Amino acid sequence: MDILQYGFIQNAIMAGILASIACGIIGSLVVVNRIVFISGGIAHTAYGGVGLAFFLGISPLLGAGFFAVVAAVVMALITLNNKQRADTVIGAMWAFGMAFGIILVDLTPGYGVDLMSYLFGSILAVPDTDLVFMAVLDAVIIIYILAYYRQIHAVSFDTEYAASMGVRTGLVYTVMLVMCALAVVLLIRVVGLILIIAMLTIPPFIAERWSASLKKMMVISSLLSLVFTLAGLYCSYVFNLTSGASIIAVSSVSFFFFITYDKLSKSFKNKLA
Question: pLDDT-derived band of residue 203, with 50, 70 and 90 as boundaries?
C-alpha cells in the first residue's frame, strides 16, 4: 500500500481504470463483430498521428486520435463495399501509418522522442492532462453505447435482421469503428500501440464465456481489464519491468490458464456424462 502515496502511481491507477472501461466496452464489440484485424489496422495507423503531432508540436494523443478516426472511417467504407480486398488495404494502411509516423519523428528538429513509450505504453508517466482527455473519451463512448445500444446489439448479432427493421447498419458500423479508434487512443498510454490488440481481445474473450448478454459481457470485460492492468502495474513496479508489457503478460497468462481450465472442465464433464 505504500506505493499509493506516489502521485505517478495514483495517475497510473486512474489511467488504468479509465482505459479498462473503454477496453471492456469496445473490446466486447470487437470480439463479437470479429473485427480484430480492423482494430489492429486502426491502432497501427494511429502511429502516423503520433509522428505528426510531434512534428507540429501538438498533443500526441490528439494527433493519434485524428489519424485513428480517419483510419476507422476509411476502413469502414472499405469493408462495407469490398470485403474481399479489405485485408490488403488495411495491411497497406497499417504499414503506411507506422512508416509515416517514424519518418515524421526523424524529421522533427531538436527533439529526442521516446518511441518506446508509444509503442509499448508508459502508464507510469501519464500526466493530469491526459487523464482529463481519457475521461472525456470514456464519456463519449459510454453515452454512445447507452443511446444506441439496441441498434449496436442488432448489427453485432444479425446485420440482415437489423437492416430489415430499418436500422442504418452502415452508419452504426462506421460509428462503431470510430469508437474503436477512440479506445485505441485511450490505450496508447497504458499498453502502447503494439500491444493494444491483446488488451482489446483477451478480456472480452474470457468474459464472453461467462456472459448471457452483451451488456454483461461489457461489464465483466471491463472488470477483467482492470484486474489485469492493476496486476501488471504492480508487477512492473516491484520487478522494475516495462508496464505495458507486464500488463499484457498478466493478461496472456490468464488467457492460457482460462483456455486450459475450460478444456479440462469440458473433458471432465464429458467423462462423467
Answer: very high
Return all residues near 103 (Cβ < 8 A) that are at least 6 apart: 51
Kindly tell me the sign of the dihedral angle through the C-alpha atoms of 174, 179, 182, 184: negative
Q: Decide: 251 and 232 in contact? Cβ < 8 Å.
A: yes
| Per-residue three-class SS string for 63-78 | HHHHHHHHHHHHHHHH
Distances (CA, A) of 185 to 23, 24, 80, 136, 152: 11, 14, 24, 12, 21
CB count within 10 Å of CB 95 equals 13
CB-CB contact of 29 with 173 (8 Å): no
Q: Which architecture does CATH list for 2-272?
A: Orthogonal Bundle (1.10)
Fill in the amino acid letter for 181: A
Q: What is the pLDDT of residues 88-110, one digit of tens each?
A: 888 888 899 989 988 988 888 76
pTM for this entry: 0.87
The pLDDT mean for the chain works out to 86
Q: Where are the domains of the chain?
A: 2-272
User: DSSP string covering 186-222, please?
Assistant: HHHHHH-TTTHHHHHHHHHHHHHTT-SSHHHHHHHHH
| Residue 25 and residue 144 in contact, taking contact as beta carbons nearer than 8 Å | no
Neighbours of 255 (CB within 10 A): 18
Q: In angstroms, rounded to a whole number, what is the distance separating the alpha carbons of residues 196 and 180?
A: 11
| Grid coordinates of 120 | 509499448
| Residue located via cell numbers 482492470 | 226
CA–CA distances in Å: residue 168 to residues 148, 152, 174, 210, 245: 11, 10, 10, 30, 39
Is the four-CA dihedral 37, 223, 126, 141 of positive or negative sign? positive
